[in-house]
Amino acid sequence: MRIDVVSIFPEYLAPLELSLIGKARQDGLLDLRVHDLRDFTTDRHRTVDDTPYGGGAGMVMKPEPWAQALAAVADVSAEQPAAAGSAVAPRPVLIVPSPAGERFTQAAAQELAEEDRLVFACGRYEGIDERVMEWAQEHFTVRPMSLGDYVLNGGEVAVLAMVEAVGRLLPGVVGNPESLVEESHSDGLLEYPVYTKPSSWRDREVPAVLLSGNHGKIAQWRRHEQYRRTAERRPDLLAEFDAGKLPRADRTAFADLGYDVVDGRLRRRPDTAGEQN
Ligand code: SAM
Fold first, then answer.
1. pLDDT tens across 172-191, in order?
2. Is the pLDDT of residue 271 over 80?
3. What are the CA-CA distances from residue 216 to residues 8, 117, 200 (Å)?
4. What is the distance in A from the centroid of ligand 1 to the CA of 9?
5. CA-derived radius of gyration, the chain
6. Pick from 129, 164, 176: which is nearest to 13 by CA?
7. Using CA of residue 143, residue 3, residue 36, residue 16, what is the dihedral sign?
8. How far away, in angstroms, is 103 Cα from ligand 1 center?
9. Is there an atom of ligand 1 within 6 Å of 63 CB?
10. Is the Cβ atom of 15 under 6 angstroms away from ligand 1?
11. Distance between Cα 234 and ligand 1 center (Å)
């Protein structure tokens, strides 16, 4: 996969040289290129922002440096729209980090990991002139994406998170692909608690079932711990969970947590609503 990141702070992306993502780059699994937006300005001061039309606080990123930068990294013309039927390769996906974007989730990371080319446009100040998004639709599949319901100073931190979440799903990046299967959010639930040696630590014992060697019992305990933890911490996830094929023991585990299976979906029993918070 090739990823291009455009930012006024290219140094901010330096952590992507470390750890598994850094190794994936060295191994040629990920071609990640970081570009300085200011290299696509034409004035002496390398200006990338200006005051907002309509007034108000803050500055807005100017459209032309963005068009020049995005056209250069994606190898398209900044002036001409893509000719109909001329596309030989699929359009790159342009991800525009924004608190006003769709929520970036594990499912989104999985979708993006299937793409050949991603381009990230890191906004700063009050964001990027909206016309850039309209122009970009001629050349890219544009996806404004939010890391969560809070406001950061710029898109770089969001890009660090998104590139890591997508990059670790690429074949060969994580040593044991099995470890991707049982993680939080891979199946719509949170992961079960994990433990390592020693089995007894500061008067706290590892749950006995994990020492039993009984793989069936361990798998069941882990599933039930996923249910318990998700019900406690993220009950919103259970509303989306496909419970249609749950075995009887798992339905009982959910019943103990106050959930019944109705038409394949989990429904909180009214008499338990509010008990868990
Ligand atoms: N005025 C914008 C608004 O209210 O939607 C916020 C601008 S924010 C100060 C500057 C930049 O930080 C945004 O353009 C975006 O690139 C990035 N950013 C801030 N919060 C983000 C979030 N939750 N997810 C992704 N990117 C975010």
1. 999 888 888 878 888 899 99
2. no
3. 53, 41, 23
4. 15
5. 23
6. 164
7. positive
8. 13
9. no
10. no
11. 25
Query: Is 107 touching ligand 1 by the criterion CB < 6 Å?
Result: no
- The position carrying tokens 């939080």 is 184
Over the stretch 135-175, which tens digit does the pLDDT of each residue have? 999 999 999 999 999 999 999 999 999 999 999 999 999 98
Residue from 61, 98, 156 whose mutation best tests the ligand 1 pocket (most atoms within 8 A of CB):
98
Amino acid found at 7: S
For the chain, the residue count is: 277
Atom of ligand 1 nearest to the CA of 145: 25
DSSP 259: E
Q: Cα 75 to chain center, whole Å?
A: 26
Distances (CA, A) of 268 to 89, 118, 261, 276, 277: 48, 40, 9, 11, 13
Q: Quote the tokens at residue 173.
A: 């990046």
Torsion sign across C-alpha atoms 24, 37, 107, 266: positive
User: What global pTM score does this model have?
Assistant: 0.92
Helices (H) and strands (E) in the chain, counts: 9, 11
CA of 161 to the centre of ligand 1 (A): 14
User: How far apart are alpha carbons 127 and 99 in whole angstroms?
Assistant: 10
Ligand 1 pocket test: pick from 126, 146, 152 the residue with the most ligand atoms within 8 Å of its Cβ: 152
Contact 83, 132 (CB under 8 A): no
Looking only at the bridges linking them, the beta strands covering 200-201 and 204-205 are antiparallel
- Does 152 contact ligand 1 (Cβ within 6 A)? yes
Ligand 1, atom 2: nearest CA belongs to which residue? Answer: 126
